[in-house]
Design brief:
The chain is α/β, with parallel strands linked by helices and 172 residues long. The chain has six helices and four strands, in the order ααβαβαβαβα. InterPro entries: NADH_UbQ_OxRdtase-like_20kDa, NADH_UQ_OxRdtase_20Kd_su.
């Protein structure tokens, strides 16, 4: 047995940026929490099913506790009565966290321009990616997940995002 090769392995040096390694791990293992309230949530179910298979992008571990999730997917209409609950879910998620607004209702209130419907979730929480459509196709939701993964590659590993964001429900 040649011991010189074994010694070379012990002395191997790996050089890279810590951000690149950490972000590579995050990119390949997104854990989404789905806040689904309407028809867009049905489209997300199709996205997670075998035909479109969100697991190809490393986001198949759906979480039902915000404390275990790093990607919040808001799919559907959000009323003013639900807004504090959505804000609490967002606040309970650990940093770093990302948000996708799926569909016209989550992005702008959709065609519900009335006194009960929140006119876009960006009034209360910061949004990283908007998905257009009513309801959007599963391919559009997959594109949003890939956009989040592209954003991940450019981020600093241990920074806190959206510190300057102040929504309607934040303490002033």
């Amino acid at each position: 047995m040649d011991l010189s090769n074994a010694n070379m392995l012990d002395e191997a040096i790996v050089t890279t940026k810590i951000d690149a390694v950490v972000n590579w791990g995050r990119e390949a293992s997104l854990w989404p929490f789905v806040f689904g309230t309407a028809c867009c949530a049905i489209e997300f179910m199709a996205t997670a099913a075998s035909r479109y298979d969100i697991s190809r992008f490393g986001a198949e571990v759906l979480r039902f506790s915000p404390r275990h999730a790093d990607l919040l997917i808001v799919a559907g209409t959000v009323s003013y009565k639900q807004a504090p609950i959505l804000k609490q879910v967002y606040d309970q998620m650990p940093e770093p966290k990302w948000v996708i607004a799926v569909g016209a209702c989550a992005s702008t209130g959709g065609f519900y321009d009335n006194y009960t419907t929140l006119q876009g979730i960006d009034e209360i929480i910061p949004v990283d990616v908007y998905v257009a459509g009513c309801p959007p196709r599963p391919e559009a939701i997959l594109d949003a997940v890939m956009d989040i993964q592209k954003q991940l590659k450019r981020e600093e590993s241990f920074s806190v995002k959206h510190q300057e964001f102040k929504g309607k429900l934040d303490d002033v």
